[in-house]
C-alpha cells in the first residue's frame, strides 16, 4: 500500500474513550472547525451545524443521555446537527414560505442530504484530529434520547441531531479493530447475489468471525464477546423501540419524511 501522513492517520484510527484532562488549545480548535467546514456539502447548502458543548453540567447531561460516563470527561465535545433552520431564515427573508407543508428543504431527500453533510464534516474533523495526535470517539449513543438532546441543546425547528464527537489527548492505547476483508465490501460493477457468490460471502464471514473473536479475546480476556456474525444476528432480531424511530422524531422538528 501507498503510505503518507493522511493515510497513516486513517488506517490507525481507533475509538478513544479515555482522555487526558489537558484542554485543547484555541489554535487546534480553530483548525479542526475550519477543516470541518471544508468538507463537501450537497449543492452548497451548508445544511449542518455543530454545537460545541463546553458547560460541564451540559457535558454531564450528554453523558447521561449517551449512558457513557466518559463523554463528560472529553476536553472537546461536539454534537453535529442537520440544519435547515438557518436556510429557513434565509428563505423567509426572501419571501419564501417556510411552514412544514411548503418548505422544500424539510422534505425527506433534503433531510438525508443534511445528515450526509453533517457526517462528512464530522469525519473531516475526526481525521484532522487524529493527524494532530489527538484521539476521538464518535457518539451515536447521544441518539438514545433525541427529544432530550433536542431540549438540552435548544435545537430549533428544522434541525436534527446526527452524531456527537468527543476529542482529547488519548489516555489509552487500544488495538486497531480488525476490518472485513476488502472483497466483502468492494464489488465490481454489481452486488454479487448469485448462489456461488453468496456461499463465498458466508465462508469469508466465518473466517472474519475468527479474526474478530481473537481481537476481543485479547482485549476482553475476562469476559467473552460474541462473534461478529452473532452480534449482527442479535441486532437483526431486535425490534426498534419508539426512542429510535426517526419518522415521528423528525416530524416533531418540522421535517416531512413522508414526501
UniProtKB/TrEMBL annotation:
Highest taxon above the source species: Bacteria
Keyword Oxidoreductase included in the entry's annotation: yes
Family per record: Belongs to the flavin oxidoreductase frp family.
Protein's name in the database: NADPH-dependent oxidoreductase
Organism: Bifidobacterium avesanii
Transmembrane segments: none
Gene Ontology terms, MF aspect: oxidoreductase activity
Domain Nitroreductase: 11-169
Keywords attached to this entry: Flavoprotein, FMN, NADP, Oxidoreductase
Amino acid at each position: 500500500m501507498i503510505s503518507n501522513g493522511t493515510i497513516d492517520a486513517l488506517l490507525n484510527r481507533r475509538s478513544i474513550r479515555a482522555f487526558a484532562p489537558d484542554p485543547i488549545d484555541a489554535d487546534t480548535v480553530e483548525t479542526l472547525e475550519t477543516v470541518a467546514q471544508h468538507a463537501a456539502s450537497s449543492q452548497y447548502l451548508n445544511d449542518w451545524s455543530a454545537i460545541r458543548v463546553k458547560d460541564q453540567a451540559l457535558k454531564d447531561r450528554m453523558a447521561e443521555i449517551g449512558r457513557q460516563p466518559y463523554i463528560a470527561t472529553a476536553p472537546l465535545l461536539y454534537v453535529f446537527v442537520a440544519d435547515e433552520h438557518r436556510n429557513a431564515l434565509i428563505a423567509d427573508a426572501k419571501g419564501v414560505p417556510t411552514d412544514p407543508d411548503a418548505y422544500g428543504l424539510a422534505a425527506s431527500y433534503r433531510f438525508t442530504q443534511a445528515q450526509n453533510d453533517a457526517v462528512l464534516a464530522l469525519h473531516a474533523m475526526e481525521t484532522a484530529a487524529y493527524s494532530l495526535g489527538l484521539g476521538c470517539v464518535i457518539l451515536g449513543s447521544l441518539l438514545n434520547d433525541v427529544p432530550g438532546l433536542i431540549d438540552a441543546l435548544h435545537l430549533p425547528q428544522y434541525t436534527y441531531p446526527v452524531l456527537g464527537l468527543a476529542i482529547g489527548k488519548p489516555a489509552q492505547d487500544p488495538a486497531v479493530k480488525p476490518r472485513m476483508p476488502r472483497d466483502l465490501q468492494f464489488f465490481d460493477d454489481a452486488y454479487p447475489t448469485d448462489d456461488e457468490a453468496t456461499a463465498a460471502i458466508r465462508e469469508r464471514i466465518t473466517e472474519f468471525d475468527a479474526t474478530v473473536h481473537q481481537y476481543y479475546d485479547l482485549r476482553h480476556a475476562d469476559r467473552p464477546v460474541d462473534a461478529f456474525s452473532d452480534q449482527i444476528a442479535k441486532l437483526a432480531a431486535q425490534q426498534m423501540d419508539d426512542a429510535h424511530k426517526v419518522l415521528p422524531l423528525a416530524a416533531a422538528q418540522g421535517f416531512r419524511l413522508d414526501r
